[in-house]
Structure formats: structure tokens, C-alpha cells
Amino acid sequence: VVAAFEGEDPDVIIVEGQGALSHPAYITSAHILRGSQPAGVIVQHAPGRAVLGDFPMVAMPTVTSEITLIEAFADTKVIGVTVNHENLTAQQLATAIDEIELDTGLPATDPLTRPLSELVEMVLQSFPTLSPRRTSRNAA
After folding, report:
1. What Cα–Cα distance (Å) separates residue 65 from each residue in 28, 51, 60, 121, 136?
2. Which of 17, 41, 50, 101 has the fewest CB atoms inside 10 Å of its own CB, making it the most exposed?
3. Long-range contact list for 85-93, CB < 8 A, 24+ apart?
4. What is d(CA 51, CA 61) in angstroms, rounded to the nearest whole number?
5. Residues facing 80 on adjacent strands
6. Start-end of H helices in the chain
7. 29-36 long-range contacts, Cβ below 8 Å, gap at least 24?
8. What average pLDDT does this structure show over 45-64?
């Protein structure tokens, strides 16, 4: 992150995280959030899961509780939600996305079954000073 910031001065740096901040096995999430100091976070949620992975005794947190935890833990804001479609039919996925958007007021998408441009839109909506750069390929 520091090398990219100092060496390239990009408008956006994407830092991929691993595991939920609330997950007992993924303490690395804390280091990623504090260390990278993100201006915005897109959180992943798996509404088709009842429990956390290999921890059948730990109920799956709600997307709202995870957002609250992230924003309390780090000086950042959650700007969107990606939905893991595991164990969901296409209709259940569409319903889950709609419910997440209504409950959180944030945009939501499944990046594996929906256009990736929806992720870009999440960033552009939250940081309006950014705008897509025109290149000769997309200037038409």
C-alpha cells in the first residue's frame, strides 16, 4: 500500500481482505483494517450460511452487525456489500440483494453473477471526486 501510494500516486488502491472482523479465526482482518486505513470498505456477506465456516457453534453475523463492527473498529465507512451466492437460488440471491440494500442503505451486488461495473459504481458513488478516465478505447 505504501509503495503504491508513494511510487504511483494512484487515485484508488484496492486492498483485498480475508475473513470477517467478527470471525474468531481471522484476526488478520484487524491488521488489514488498521494498517491500510481504508477510506471505504466493501464488505462481503453470505446470507445463505447459518454458521461461520468451521465454527458450527458461531452463528453467522448479520450484515448490519458486521458493518457496525467495522465502522466502530476502524476510522472508515462501509460503502457497499458484495453477496456470496452460496446456497442461494437466483431468486433468493436477488431477494437478498434487495433486502441488504433496503436494510443498510448501501448498494449490494454479487460480483460473480452480476456486472463488475456495479463494484466500480459503489466506489464512484461514495467518492464522487473520482471519475472514470477516458481512454481511446472507451471515448466513443
Report:
1. 19, 15, 10, 24, 44
2. 50
3. 85/48, 85/110, 85/112, 85/113, 86/46, 86/48, 86/49, 87/48, 87/49, 88/47, 88/48, 92/48
4. 8
5. 42
6. 2-8, 28-36, 63-73, 90-104, 117-126
7. 30/73, 33/70, 33/73, 33/74, 33/76, 34/73, 34/74, 35/1, 36/1
8. 90
Beta strand 51-52 with 108-109 is unpaired
Residues 6+ apart with CB under 8 A from 120: 132
For residue 8, report the phi and psi dihedrals to the nearest 5 degrees: -120, -20
Q: Which three cell numbers stand for residue 13?
A: 488502491
Q: How confident is the model at residue 63 (pLDDT cuts 50, 70, 90)?
A: very high
Backbone angles phi, psi at 65, to 5 degrees: -65, -35
